[in-house]
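the three lines:
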Amino acid sequence: MSIKVSMTVNGKPTSAEVEERTLLVTYIREELRLTGTHVGCDTAQCGACTVHMNGKAVKSCSMVAMQAQGADILTIEGVAAADGTLHPMQAAFKENHGLQCGFCTPGMVMNAIDLAKGRPNLSETEIRDGLEGNLCRCTGYHNIVKSIAAGAKAMAK
Amino acid sequence: MNAPLIGARIERKEDYRFLTGAGQYTDDVTLPNQSYAVFVRSPHAHATINAIRKDKALKAAGVLAVFTGEDLKVGGLPCGWLITDVNGQPMKEPVHPSLAQGKARYVGDQVAVVIAETLDQAQDAAELVEVDYGVLPAVVNGEQARAKGAPVLHDVAPDNTCYVWALGDKAGVDAAFSKAAHVTRLDLVNNRLIPNAIEPRAVNGMYSRADDSYTLYVASQNPHVERLLMTAFVLGLPEHKVRVVAPDVGGGFGSKIYLYAEDVVVTWASKQINRPVKWTAERSESFLTDAHGRDHVTTAELAMDKDGKFLALRVKTTANVGAYLSTFASCVPTILYATLLAGQYTTPVIHCEVTAVFTNTVPVDAYRGAGRPEATYVVERIVEQAAREMKLDPVEIRRRNFIKTFPYQTPVALMYDTGNYEATMKAAIEIAGVSGFAARKKESESRGKLRGLGYAAYIEACGIAPSNIAGALGARAGLFEAGEVRMHPTGSCTVFTGSHSHGQGHETTFAQVVADRLGIPMESVDIVHGDTSKVLFGMGTYGSRSIAVGGTAIYKALDKIIAKGKKIAAHLMEAAETDIEYDRGVFKVAGTDKQKTIGEVSFAAYVPHNYPLDKLEPGLNENAFYDPANFTFPAGTYVCEVEIDPDTGFTKVEKFTAVDDFGKNINPMIVEGQVHGGLTQGIGQALLEGCKYDPETGQLITGSFMDYCMPRATDVPSYNLETRETPCTHNPLGVKGCGEAGAIGAPAALMNAITDALQPYGINDLPMPASPATVWKTIQNAKQKAA
Amino acid sequence: MHAFTYHKPSTLGDAVSLAGKHGDGKILAGGQSLVQAMKLRLASPTDLIDLGGIKDLASIKADGSTVTIGAMARHAEVEANADVKKMIPVLARLAGGIGDRQVRHMGTLGGSLANNDPAADYPAAVLGLGAIITTNKRKIAADDFFKGLFETALEPGELITAVTFPTAKRAGYMKFKNPASRFALVGVFVADTSSGVRVAVTGAASSVFRATAIEKALSAKFEPDAVPAGTVKAADLNSDLHGSAEYRAHIITVMAKRAVAQALGK
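prediction for all of em together
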């Protein structure tokens, strides 16, 4: 059966008739064609699907779209400024080579932005602990940790 | 404009799209009117397929087609390397069907495909396909598969043996052992790994009736090879009617080199139903179907004189190749393994025998390092063990045996062109703070913890080549690379490369090479890869070959651009061609102040009003194929320091130091990133990752991230890296390749550190991954034995 | 995922009546376990009854000696709640160690308890502190709630609304993680409460359980060294790829000692 789901995504109201079993990530990728949010696993470990729901990082593969009914969703496509200027966390990933193949990157950045909110002086341990829910197979995390430390500082400016 | 770009830490050109969600991976590609495929896979490790009933599935909502092996009678998936066994016979090559023909040989083997309007509908209908299986006994262990009475997978290999192959001087080795003052022996298992690129494999295929052509989007490391294998060997399609696009690819690590059954089925089916067909693996499917890596069982013996000088090495390995031969499966435990067993040492004679065995498991193929991590593990574990037995410092025993003069011909076929093993060893010792280790160990002991230090002095061979030698060794493909430089009238350029980037940053490093050589801004250079309709040809990216082979192909095309540019410039400046010099973007007449920029020359080439049309074609577009004269030989020393909690068996990697010699580094920032990733995969192998099958049922026990332990940020430290440089002697860039080193050297360094920490218990070996439970159990066993 | 019908009741009464009407349906709290199981087609409820629309199920209230946490309180809310941090700091720490950040933003106390995953953290706290589980029908003591592998005392149509945690004089929780899943391979919750010492173990067996021999020893002397070795028998424990029963039995002792040390602020 289909059902009507509505939510704000990247500041714009969105709505669609979807099957009730539609996951939030499927709504974002297939209905809205915002393909920056990725699916890397089916057991909620990899975090490539991380988006913000009402300001908090969540795994969009681990909820049905209806759980986000009326919510405010932010995806990687909505993070940079309207003129294309990168968010300080995105810029920090670029400056510190915090990404390689780019597949885990949107989830990493979304989680990092939430993690760093109001915490400009994140320690290496806090950052590594904060990445428990995000897998990267390319970078060995070294430069992701550096990127988030730098991004957290830059966000506070 | 003229600052040197080679060696500069330049931010990546590709990052903006990845950071803003604008990357285009295969699953992001939506084709008009596309349908969705779901595979019905064998739940049994070994079973006859007696009947398949598709009628219920065909009647389900949205279903467009259901196909089985009965429908898809095409060629088998080919193996690209023929190994000849010790008796001069070709290896056994069982047919590898794209949809099972009468028998399933591992859990996950594809039995049927269901295609529907939506993914959910295809999944629902896949459950309705009824397969009548006759379950057979299964075998998952390579050594057990060789035993009498083991279940037989393929009629063509009644003893489940693909080949027994050997390299080296057996008689010489036997003679050396008979004269040895000491022999060190180790039994080693190189654990099976599951690659787990974070982007699951995906393919989206479209057939066009208009011109009887196919377009295939696929997460591949080498689209031209994919096309060649699929058209020539499996589907018998004209190669020029198939376009393969590997767009942004989310990591490969080897697992996306191969031609997979799903790619064939989707391509074929798109014509049958005359609609695009899309398939994206779920992670559970990736575990069950992506080619696995490693899985060696080895006995190694090292003969020494009384001073710890190596006299001979004898290695015997059983390699589990899985249920079928994957695309390059046969060369990994042979050509890419036994040839590396000299390591950094002057061991005068070496003999290695490898038995490759079929089992009821996922096919095994190259995974980051491919053969070389296995070889390094053998050499560096046994060298460390030899030092313990000879009561020599592990650094000292290595130094006594280092190769010091180059070129050096090893007894296992390779000719090392250059290297300086003392330089990387010395630097690693300093950076790792080895002199302070004793104090740190004491401090750990005061807290009831064990601390250990381990070394690995690895060598690898990258950019496998040259093609004629590889061909003589059984390669069924060329090993060159192609590049094309297309200058535009306004002076910018587009460069086409047969290498493929799936995280390596070629769009940046290759642009650095081009911009540096041509003296134009980085922004004026675009690198294009991953599309057979754009790139003239390519062998793709694997084996750390891209900069050494693909980069050199581009470099040679640049040489041609400059050579033609000189002719044009000579005409424009009314000078002799021999008087024209090229220096970073400017053609100059020697000894004068006359000059023309590359932009001016390009413009003249495309607007040839003042141009030597009688002698020269217009345009400035050159391509080159480069077939290397030799492998490159990156090498280095890794030092790992661990602390173990004996109460829980938990191992923490406290410090990891890597000093590598990759020859010239184009972009040190990217090089470091490659090493970080490789090290983490190596640490993953040693400490965390291990594929496990149920020995009775053949079920994959580690079939998800819930059970297969992927390295997380908390599992690894920040790394200490440096490089030392001995430029490669046989390519113009002096580069060697850096993609796999970390994964090659790290497992031995880490296991040497763990066994060093466990010396109080007399423990010299334990299996990878050294999980807490394994370390604890090993300690308990040692304690019991001592008591 | 199989198809299902989605319901979003706005009152507890409606939720209860929907649950009663759809016997093969499932209650959706945070969904961090349920949605995964449905994706893998391991769970196929006909109906999903989403509690996300019911007000007041997520409140956290403290009185003198207890903290009552609503069933829909997210792990991150418990982790950050000032009252929880002040009155039962170990509970805030435990909540802050469940899963990962993203999971903690969605996962709920009630969902975790109703699921009773053998390796979940919350059951250890509930049993270790002797909490009271309030449902739409009754109050259930922790000792009566956990019945076995993914089994609880909840009857069909019965929903958890809140859990009341008593404070403890001192308490600690130490988790040894399964390296792959990061669930508890063994988690030991130790609490010195007004009704005596309680020790709850998660991850090791088919369901959370009390380690009575350790309780007895710690009642005599609340010190790490007092934790006796080998009192939990391996024969009763799980064995898997990541740890044999023998290993788990040993780790229970180690984690119990460390939990006591943590409770003592050592």
